[in-house]
Amino acid sequence: MSLRERFDVLAAAASADTNDLDALWADLAVLTPEEMLGAWRGGDFATGHPAGGLLTKIGWHGKRFDSLLDGHPLICRGEDGELYSNTKFAGGGYSSLWEVGFRGETTATMVYDAMPVFDHFKRVDDTSVMGIMNGKLEAAFGTPDNYYFWLERDDR
């Protein structure tokens, strides 16, 4: 099964096992921060992590990186259907992109300005990436477990 097929199966699963997600992550290629520039639509893998419910509650649509130092991690859809950068949720709403070591590799990583949390990214294909959020998640989400999610290029 190709990487894309494995990704699609896990993304569509009613319940995704973190061991399977970790195995997929290990096989994906690293990215540079510059490759993350632009707009992204996002979703998560069904692991039961509380971050998924919180993001759904605020209408999370994805992320946008206007430059390496100007990131918007919480692009949300308002009640009017319009997209906006939610800068109030989680005490902030801005981020930057860096190369950070994670699991023995250096890859593009989003660093939140207001939270001690990192989103690490690896390439699925030319239009999709897998992300793993780690850091001090217990303070933000009540669990130390990593949060697994995905992003796809968004031309809107």
First-to-last CA distance? 31 Å
Globally, the shape reads: globular
As a percent range, the share of helical residues equals 10-25%
Give start-end ranges of low-pLDDT stretches. none
SSE order in H/E notation? HHEEHEEEEEEEHE
Largest sheet: 10 strands, antiparallel
Q: Using the CA coordinates, give the radius of gyration.
A: 14 Å
Measured by DSSP, the beta-strand proportion falls in 35-45%
Q: Please identify the structural class as seen in this structure.
A: alpha+beta
Number of helices: 4
Total count of strands: 10
Mean pLDDT: 94
What can you tell me about this protein's structure?
With 156 residues, the protein is of the alpha+beta class. It has 4 helices and 10 strands; from the N terminus they run ααββαβββββββαβ. The chain has helices at residues 3-12, 18-27, 50-57, 137-141; strands at residues 29-30, 38-44, 60-67, 70-77, 83-85, 95-102, 105-112, 117-125, 128-135, 147-153. Strands 1, 2, 3, 4, 5, 6, 7, 8, 9 and 10 form a 10-stranded antiparallel beta sheet that branches. Helix 1 (3-12) packs antiparallel against helix 2 (18-27). The chain is globular, with a radius of gyration of 14 Å. The N and C termini lie far apart (31 Å). The mean pLDDT is 94.
